[in-house]
Amino acid sequence: MPWWENEFVRVRGGRLALGRFAAASLASKFGTPLYVYGRTRIRSRYRDLARTVGRRIAGEVRLCYALKANPNPGILAALRSEGAWIDAVSPGEVRAALAAGYPARRILFTGTSLGPDDFEQAFAVDGLTVNIDAVEQIEDMARVRRRRFRDKPIRVAVRWNPGIGRGFHPKVVTAGERSGDGTPIKFGIEERRVLDAFREAAKAGFIPVGLHQHLGSGWVGEDFPTVAEAVERMAAKAGGVEAAGFPLEFLDFGGGFGPRYRRSQSLFPLERYVTLIGRTLKRAGLADKAVAFEPGKYLVADAGVLLLRVEYVKKSYGNLLACVGGGTLNTLPRPAIYAQVHHEIVNCRDAAGPASARVTVAGNLCETGDVFGRDMAMPEPRRGDILAVLCAGAYGRSMASTYNLRPIPDEVLV
Fold it and tell me: 364-378 in b/e burial notation, b at 16+ Cβ within 10 A?
């Protein structure tokens, strides 16, 4: 049994099946490149997470789906029916959540480098909570409020930077002073200015209700010590905020824990993490606060598969290349953007067959880096085969572009 099988992606009669359907039949019916998502798997992931967190957190739990991971309307509807909240990072994402039936009170808008137009759109939504990413934003926020929304109660939270961050690649670390490649971190308010943000927001007429942090994306087992330290810092900072006269409705610990992308990956200890949060908040006298998390990849990544057709197989200087009718930047940009990214790739015709070849799956864009996987061990592909790029439900189509004027792929929810 392949390690990547779940209730959505499995081997049936030697071929790859996606839910009730043969993967190759879906490719034939809808064409390729094609995204296929499994509704049942998404619901299952949400329920498992809700049970895990609910058993260990004393107060209210808010699972805020990170909409940027995948804004497919069918996925949003499925998660809404399970009780999800929404983490939105742009006015467009707020509109998508509202269109999918989420009430504004269940949406947290966390933007960065925002301007007056962003705030006008956000403040127009009754009940929305707006996260403050910089003390410097508050001046624009106050100006917009005075001009257009003077008498309107507007809820805000403060996103702080606890000084430490973790992620699978320097480009996705969102806290600390600088990421691993030396890039200054743009997100959140540094520790010494958090109380200033609360005071200035209240002075400008906003209603501060929450404290938020987010460390980065793609935590694995080795990241736990840093994440645990950030939990302690969050509790200490929340206590200080309340002692300064700002009672908090919720604490948002962000996202970061993800699915398994490869067999050798050490999974982040989620149960240990939420147990730590529950104990830490109880010890700090904060157990009555609502606790929010922002899962994205965790909920939808392994419920999505990208299907690609092999146009021909090329041999060149000892390399074996499966040349497929789709490009990374138009379909699944992650392998072209992050060097550490790995997606299992399966030949739908022989999904569990012996790995007889080392194959580079090459896209159709004019970029050397346009490869979905390099030297992948798999049964040797043939012209016309359908390859399935697994764990592709998050940050795939949502990041896709029309580079080289190639189209963005269609989607099917089964």
Answer: bbeeeebbbbeebeb
Q: State the fold for domain 111-295.
A: TIM Barrel (3.20.20)
User: What distance in Å separates the CA atoms of residue 12 and residue 6, rounded to the nearest whole number?
Assistant: 12
List Cα–Cα distances, 208 to 130, 211, 243, 250, 370, in angstroms.
Answer: 9, 9, 14, 10, 45
- CATH number, domain 9-38+301-413: 2.40.37.10
Peptide bond into 33 cis (omega under 30): yes
Between the alpha carbon of residue 73 and those of residues 108, 357, 398, 410, the distances in Å are 18, 39, 12, 13
pLDDT per residue as tens digits for the range 305-356? 999 999 999 999 999 999 999 999 999 999 999 988 999 999 999 998 899 8
CB 385 within 8 A of CB 310: yes
Q: Which helix (H) or strand (E) holds 283?
A: helix 270-283
Which residue in the block uniquely carries the two structure tokens 């610990």?
253
- Is the pTM higher than 0.85? The answer reads yes
Helices (H) and strands (E) in the chain, counts: 12, 20
Q: Tell me which residues are annotated as active site.
A: 366
Q: How is the chain split into domains, by residue range? A: 9-38+301-413, 111-295
User: pLDDT means per 10 residues in the chain (414 residues)?
Assistant: 94 97 98 98 98 94 98 98 98 98 98 97 98 97 96 97 93 92 95 97 98 96 96 98 98 94 94 97 96 98 98 97 98 93 96 92 97 95 98 97 97 98
Distance between CA atoms of residues 66 and 257, nearest Å: 12
The position carrying tokens 């606890």 is 162
